[in-house]
Hints:
Layout: H1 6-10, H2 16-22, H3 27-30, H4 36-42, H5 45-49, E1 53-55, E2 61-64, E3 69-70, H6 72-80, H7 86-93, H8 103-115, H9 126-132, H10 142-161, E4 175-177, H11 180-185, H12 195-207, E5 211-213, H13 221-227, E6 228-231, E7 234-237, E8 241-244, H14 253-256, H15 269-276, H16 278-284, H17 294-303, E9 313-314, H18 315-326, H19 330-342, E10 348-352, H20 353-358, E11 374-378
Antiparallel strand pairs: 1-2, 2-3, 4-8, 5-8, 6-7, 9-11, 10-11
Helix pairs in contact: 8-10, 10-12, 15-16, 18-19
Amino acid sequence: MRYKNEGYLQKWSENVDKVAELTRHSPTRVSSKKSLDGLFNSINVGKLLGAKWKKELNGKKYILTSNSKSNPTVAFIECLGSLTQLPVFLKMFYPEMLQRNDYREACRIVDKNLKQLPTKRSKCPDEVKDLFVPMSKSDSLRDDKKLLLDCWRAINYATVNQVAGSPLVKGAGRGVYLTCDVVKSMLKYPQNATPAKIYNGLLLLRVGGFIQLAQDDELTPAGLKLQTIDKNGVTVRKNNVFILNDFDQADPKLITDNLRLVLTTRVSKAIIEKILGSENTKKFFPLVNSGVDEVTIGRFQQAIKGKDLIPISTLSDAVNNLESVLGISAQLARLYINQLCQYKPLHVVKLRKTDAVAQGYDLTGLKDIHSSEKLLVIAKE
C-alpha cells in the first residue's frame, strides 16, 4: 500500500473507531470549508493518510511520495476506493462540512468514470486504447497518452473536489469549473504537465465529447455568475464551466480518426470545424479562433496531390513558403505546419532525411540536403 492508513480508509465502515481517531479535528476550522482541498489543508492530513507531508510557500499542503509530491485530495480519493461512499464518509467524520444538493450524484458519476479508466489489459474499444493507453515503453506517444488520461482523471477529481456550494449546471452532479491550474492541481503525475499541454489535452477531450462547454440554458444562476465577469462595465464570457459526460458515452474516434496525439500542438479552429462542423464549433469552442485556416488547408491539399513517395518539400522550405505567402512569422508558420501534420486526413508527416531514405521515399533533387534535415512526406498508412 502507498500510504500507511490506506487499508483503514478503504474499509472505513469496518474501522469506524480507528478512522474517527484519524479524522479528529477542530469543528470550527472545518465548518467553513467548501472543498476537499480546503478540508485537507486545514487538518492533519499526514495523520489521516499515514504519510509524510509538507506545506509550501503558497500555504498548500502536499503529500510526499517516494519520488515526487501529491495533492492530498488525489491521495485521499485513491485511498478511499469507491467514491459513492464519499458523501457518507464526510457526513460521518466531518459533519460540519456542508454538501451541495447534487454532491451524491456527482460522486456516483465520477466513481463510474474512474472505474472505466482503460488499461493495457482492460476490455475496451480499440480507439479508447489508441487514445489513452501506451502499448509499450517504446510507444512514441507514451507520454502524451499518459498525460491525456491523467487530465481526464483530474477533471473527474475536480468535480468531486467541490463539496459545498450551489450546483453549476442543471444536470445534477455534472457541473465542473475548469482552468489549466485547476486541472494541474488534480493531476496524479503533474511533473511534466505544462499549461500548454494541459490546455491542448482539454481541447481534445472536448472534441471527443468527454466534457463540453455548458451553454447558457444549461447553467444554474451560480454557474452563469461564474461563467461571466464584469470588465469595465461590459459582461465578458470566461467559458470555464463545463459539463462532465459519461466516459462510455464519449466518442474517442472523433479524435483518433482525425487527429494525431501531439499535446504540444493546439488544434486549430478550422480543423475542429472539419471534425464537428461550423455550428458546433461556434457553439462549443467560441474562444478558439487561431491556427491554420480553411484556405491554407485547401492550398496544402492541392500541393500534395500525386506526391506519394516524393517528398512534398523540406520542412524549412515549407515554413519559408508560408511566411512569404501569408505574411506571418516563422514561429507561426511552424505552428501551421504542425497543425497540418496533426490533421490525419492530410496524411502528412515530418521525417528526417535518413528515415525517409530507409522507408523508400524518392529523394531525387534532395540528395544534397543534410542528413538531419526534416522533410514533409505523405505517410505510409
